[in-house]
Write a structure and sequence with these properties.
Layout: E1 11-12, H1 13-18, H2 20-39, H3 41-69, H4 76-95, H5 97-125, H6 132-152, H7 157-182, E2 189-190
Antiparallel strand pairs: 1-2
């Protein structure tokens, strides 16, 4: 319990320094993964789409198993239809990966825009800390990526998942790398994001 950081208390430089090496290592790993994802956008997009389809099918199966294993038949009606819907959605995504990529790209629009807004807000919350500018740039990039996908939708679904997720992962890596590197010169206390 002593290694855990309380969310309600401010994070100290000492707390962050304990995880500095891990932050830098994950930053470098994210940069490499982002470059790989951008290098093969269709492969990355197809893989992500198929994984989500499989997850939906497995989730639907578990939901149906719960329904048939429960004693309360009335309670399970919504769970039953939810499980069936998840299996159908997963099956459609797997059988039609291009349609799945188009739908996932629409979800990415909402993700990137909300992620960008939250990162911009977080960057201003930690503003005196060195490296806050990279968090701001990452937030602006996420916001711009969301808008870019939206403007090219549905055709953007073919390339968007791989390229844009790769760019997002790379920016997250740079943010981690810069924040981990800047910890040595950070003030004693800074607010929680």
């Amino acid at each position: 319990m002593s290694d855990m950081i309380e969310i309600t208390q401010p994070i100290t430089t000492k707390d962050v320094k304990r995880f500095r090496g891990i932050l830098i290592a994950f930053g470098i790993l994210n940069i490499m993964l982002g470059i790989m994802a951008m290098g093969a956008p269709f492969v990355t997009g197809t893989a992500v789409t198929l994984i989500i389809g499989i997850i939906l099918i497995v989730s639907g199966i578990f939901e149906l198993m719960h329904v048939f294993g429960s004693d309360c038949r009335k309670c399970g009606v919504f769970d039953f239809f939810g499980g069936v819907l998840a299996i159908i959605a997963g099956g459609v995504i797997i059988s039609r990966p291009l349609l799945g990529m188009a739908m996932l790209s629409l979800l990415l629009v909402f993700y990137f825009i909300s992620d960008g807004i939250f990162r911009i807000i977080a960057s201003f919350k930690i503003r005196p800390v060195p490296g806050w500018g990279m968090l701001l740039i990452g937030g602006l990039a996420s916001l711009a990526l969301g808008i870019m996908i939206w403007r090219g939708w549905p055709l953007s679904g073919i390339w968007a998942i791989g390229v844009l997720v790769g760019i997002r992962i790379m920016f997250a890596g740079w943010s981690m790398l810069f924040l981990g590197s800047a910890v040595g010169s950070a003030p004693t206390l800074f607010p929680v994001l």
